[in-house]
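Worked Example 4.2. Read the sequence first, then its structure tokens.
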Amino acid sequence: MRLTEIFRLVWLNLASNKFKVILTSTGIIVGSATIMLVIAIGTGGREEVAEQFKNLNAGAIDITYEYQGNDFGGGRPGGMSGGEASGGGMPGGGSMPGGGASMPQGGGGMPGGIMPGGRADFGAGFFGNFFSGGQEERNTERITLSTDDLEDILTFVPGVEEGCLSFTATSAVDGGELEESASYTIAGVQSNYAALSNLELAMGEFLNDDDDTYKEKVCVLGYDAAREIFGSVYDAYNGTVYIDNRPYQVIGVLNAMGSVSSGISPDSALFIPYETGLKYLAGNNVSPTLTVIAQDVKEVETVIANVETVLAESYPNAEFTISDAGSRMEAASASNDTLTMLLVCMAVIVFIVGGIGIMNVLFVSVKERTNEIGILKAIGCSRRDILAEFLLEASCTSLIGAILGVMLALGLTPALEHFGVTIALSVSGGVLSLVFGVLTGTVFGFYPAWQASRMIPVEALNHE
């Protein structure tokens, strides 16, 4: 039998049983739609992770301290003046972690004295303070990371490129088109924060060192904050906002970032100079984040270990939270991959169920069409012809289901996006859904088709 005649027979059988074909392919419809959406959600998830962390430097390391209420080691131990130091290096030989330079002589050590271990008589000053009542003060003193800590890390930790301090606070903001004050995240940052976080300006300029030094009341608005407060980016520039009832001039507006940097969402935040924020907003209750950039991403773990060593010299019994952007990216990617794998497993199960459905229907179809098979064999059709006919029926049924599944996925996409799911549809996803659908129908339809091809013509013709 010619191939065209086989296709004609397949078409006639499918066309005469449209409703049965749709019901048979239900599992394939669901499976194909699931596969296409799985690929789209997985791709969208990866894009969302990349978007979320696009303004994070892969070598960024964030250091924070959470006040526990009764923390020993609350301040920088000291007692020796800088002038008394004769070689204030790190313990055990005077060099910093990783083979860095030793501490400068004279007054170049930590504020208030040299680092612990610089002199043998340091213990006298330290333990003298300890037993003279200093313990109670240190137990209740807050640890606040400062520019001194940043300078220590930049100076004594090898492989650190740059760093900055930042903090966040929530404050009432008024001005622009706001009818009443609204609560916004206020970020106190240093001038190099934009460069470290890869922030881009839509217009204006970012904060500079003079703004920080002179505690200027200026600010830079995130893209969403500018539109919410002033109605547009252009109206926001050179405008005035009132943060905690104090006027701040808007000197710049950021591009839309849609991501998070050092715990700050740039789009909805207002950025002010770090020292200005300390003076007018945070005061002594600030818990800043110290961010440093490792020169080599592969050496991040080593840099973190060295940072911990330097901080331990300044705050012997304090525990700091240290995290790097690379780990956060990997964790987010791993979560997305896990979700994608779960969805793929679900799609595979649906395909198996759909394939079993096709197999069962074909078994019934073979039994119902036994006489037809006998007639075909009697007029000269080979086993290969019978096998091809039933196999093509199974494949075409699953192909129809796969096409309907792709259409279902396209229809569900707007609904899923409405609930905040990031979906990135692709042609490759649709093609893969069709391939999976046809493959499932072919695999599960083979055995019933093989059984049909093995029938004996006389028995098939005498079947009632």
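Now turn to a second chain, presented in exactly the same format:
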Amino acid sequence: MTTSATASREFATEVVRQLRSAGYVALWAGGCVRDYLMGREAQDFDVATNATPEQVRELFGKRRTLAVGQSFGVIIVLPPDKAATQVEVATFRTEGIYLDGRRPSEVVFSTPEEDAQRRDFTINGMFYDPIEDRLLDFVEGKADLDRKILRAIGDPHERMTEDKLRMLRAVRFAATLEFTLDAHTLAAVTRMAPEMIVVSAERIAQELRKMLAHRTRVRGFQLLAETRLLHVIFPEVDLADTHTIADILGGLWTNARFELATAAILHQISSPVSEPRSEAEARGTIWAMTRRLKLSSDEMTSIAWLVAHLDCWNDAEQQTDAQLKRVLAHPLSGDLRQLVRAIRTTQCLPLSPIEFVDDYAARHTPEQINPPELISGRDLIQHGLHPGPQFKSLLDTIRDAQLNGEIATREEALEQLKLIMPSSKD
């Protein structure tokens, strides 16, 4: 266990101890209990108690607490230093009906037994007493944990109706934990998949980031397709291609980032053979899809760049040094090489182009691939040119000459510039 994980666990135990010393019931709750029983490092710790939010704030002090969810019985308790993570303290509660598929209409403080029944899955519905080393399991979560079963608590349809995001969470948990999705839970998710459209794009994207950046992304993608959630989230993806996409995802490195995995899923959208869409329209589709999920600008740019450059090395052996170096200089060129290799392997296409690129990259240092530019727009202005479209053309010509090894110094670049400048500006 890492130092930060140990500090977080000790702080979560101390929160329980202080609540207990003040006369309240207090237990670890939810995912941290699941992770503890599985011998995994918990990402965060939740504590459930019969103390009200006001009593929690009074006990720990307002300077060390945040009332981020006080109306729902949730208070954040801050650690004394940055070594530990904050602890979410929630009052045992039951919840009224969910009118928006996300939040309950009312919250009623209750008992641990009643609180367990309103949680999502049995493996997330257990409590643990870290002081007395005692498990409180009112939903048979431990049995499901031992059997590696992900099962909704009670009626799965009711659980998914309360919060539609639970459908996507069911897929993520089953995939990342490598559990089997209970048949009744699977059926409920599949039947209710179209209702995922009411969930905010931000919440969906957050689940996808956790799922697709995980080493079990192939299983996650397969479950998305099986439950038809994939069609709701990415309606542009042809469901007939899911087996191919899964194989491509399996060809990526284990720690592939979310952007790379998403580009693998969306790669066929931009293919020139995706008739009747034109290539330009296909690129626009990628942007529209990523914007719809409200991904960050960096994420959208990365995904679009990867997809747009999938065919750039088809004729790699015939390309100039400048053509090769321009793409290899991009920060995502490593991801692109991995994606191209995975696609070509899955589609049984020759690997010689990407092997040529890999060899070329290995034979050239980063400085050779992306040397400092010899001139800039300022030099063009000093030579009497006015900023405009010709700037890019002139600078690209000089840059290509540099990357091709035709010029190597600033003086040579300036001489070359004199030769290619418009005659009216000589």
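Notes for the reader: The chain has 22 helices and eleven strands. The longest helix spans residues 3-21.
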